[in-house]
Design goal:
This protein is an alpha/beta fold. It has 14 helices and 14 strands. Strand 5 and strand 6 form a beta hairpin. The N terminus is likely disordered.
Length: 385
């Protein structure tokens, strides 16, 4: 088995047996209506929140995990994973897309009859932004919403592609509605995500501001570097994404210039500048990547078509970091290496990944940089090799 096959096979964590065992909780408990507030429960306890109308790639219903905080801030964490958009991606990347995400997957230590987790671990993630005992974590006292990834479309899809349901865009819209019903007035909102989740935060920046009422809205893209300029992402790869996920009906809502005409330079590379312009005056935008991220390098080039070789990946990362960091409300953190930086690394020796708690660059720890983004923006700056 190749290193990539091992990586993506390991990342898929959900099983049919787990979902069957939790059907009673998924169907009962409390209302799944996205307009109904989440029932109150103890601060910092995790709870599975079903959301009516949300759909995983296999057609099963889904939801998210919610942990009440003691402050008026909200941290949304979008989980990462693989993608499905053509035959080539289905051979590798889609193996890292869980076919479902339910209460058993959300609560690995079990749950009571109302979906309140017995343990206090966010699915497979125990580090960084989801660790309330981490002193540098700007989310340690905040409300936390954990969006599990099961749509295979970097949270941007609105389509049926064969037997696959790509409804990630609608899922997030519904999750945000439920959070708005529960938390009508917030101070700061941070949307952070790793890999596919980092891209998802950029895709949904408009939905977040429209749906949630807050004083500030921040975005943190960790390892979602596939949003490079078009010179670094082959047009045939972009065509595959657009065709499989119907991006015109999702990304096109806020940033039509990112999907309008990829043949004429109006492709995904324009999404970042659109996001940066729309975020101005609303909050800060951070970007984190290694210079040679092997996972994202594969994602940008893996299609069933014969694509021309794009410009080198490391040049694309530097160009993207420079663009984001060139805005007054943006900053980038770039690390030399090939690892895929995640909130919690995959626990397998052949997987080239690192936790955000173990990364530093130029003498600056990544967790300190993230904390400064939210707590002390005057000390927040671009960091790179």
């Amino acid at each position: 088995m190749s290193r990539w096959a091992v990586l993506f096979a390991f990342a898929a964590g959900c099983t049919a047996e787990t979902r069957q065992a939790d059907e009673a909780v998924a169907k009962s408990s409390f209302s799944a209506n996205p307009s109904v507030p989440i029932p109150s429960h103890d601060p910092h306890r995790l709870r599975w929140v079903p959301v009516e109308g949300s759909t995983c790639i296999d057609g099963s219903s889904t939801g998210f995990i919610f942990s009440p905080g003691t402050s008026s801030d909200l941290c949304i964490y979008m989980e990462g994973g693989g993608a499905s958009y053509d035959k080539s991606s289905d051979s590798f990347l889609s193996l890292a897309v869980p076919r479902g995400f339910g209460p058993g997957d959300a609560c690995p230590d079990g749950h009571d009859g109302d979906g309140v987790c017995l343990g206090n671990v966010f699915s497979r993630h125990t580090d960084g932004l989801l660790n309330r005992n981490e002193s540098r974590n700007p989310c340690r006292d905040a409300h936390i919403a954990y969006f599990g990834y099961c749509s295979g479309d970097v949270y941007a899809g609105n389509s049926s592609n064969g037997s696959n349901q790509h409804r990630g865009y609608r899922n997030v819209q519904l999750f945000l509605q439920r959070l708005a019903a529960t938390l009508p007035k917030l101070n700061q909102v941070l949307c952070a995500g790793s890999s596919a989740g980092g891209i998802g935060c950029f895709v949904h920046q408009g939905n977040i501001r429209r749906t949630l009422t807050a004083n500030a809205y921040h975005l943190l893209n960790i390892s979602g570097s596939a949003l490079m300029a078009d010179a670094y992402v082959p047009l045939c790869t972009q065509r595959a994404w657009q065709s499989a996920w119907n991006l015109q009906s999702t990304i096109g809502n806020d940033c039509p210039e990112a999907v309008r005409d990829i043949e004429r330079g109006q492709g995904v590379g324009n999404l970042v500048d659109c996001v940066m312009r729309q975020q101005e005056g609303h909050g800060r935008v951070g970007f984190v990547s290694t210079t040679q991220d092997g996972v994202m390098d594969l994602f940008r080039t893996l299609t069933a078509s014969r694509c021309p070789t794009p410009a080198p990946f490391h040049e694309g990362v530097q160009e993207l970091a420079g663009r984001i960091g060139g805005y007054a409300h943006g900053s980038s953190f770039v690390v030399k290496g090939k690892e895929h930086i995640l909130n919690t690394p995959l626990q397998f020796s052949l997987v080239p990944s690192k936790s955000i708690t173990s990364v530093s660059s130029g003498g600056v720890a990544l967790m300190d940089w993230i904390q400064a983004m939210i707590k002390t923006p005057q000390a927040w700056r671009n960091v790179g090799p």
